[in-house]
């Protein structure tokens, strides 16, 4: 799951870099980090319950 998020975020990151807007890649990276944390928490919950 985390690998898919990375694969999806890389093209989006390069596309936003091409436009010259530095706020877009930062927002994308934040979204990816949040998704990874949420996915990790869900995996831990699945293991505990």
TrEMBL record:
Source domain of life: Bacteria
TM annotation in the entry: 22-41
The entry's keywords: Membrane, Transmembrane, Transmembrane helix
Keyword Transmembrane carried by entry: yes
Name of the featured protein: Uncharacterized protein
InterPro entries associated with the record: ATPase_P-typ_TM_dom_sf
């Amino acid at each position: 799951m985390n690998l898919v998020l990375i694969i999806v975020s890389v093209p989006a990151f390069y596309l936003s870099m091409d436009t010259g807007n530095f706020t877009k890649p930062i927002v994308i990276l934040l979204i990816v980090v949040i998704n990874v944390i949420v996915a990790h928490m869900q995996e831990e919950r699945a293991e505990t319950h």
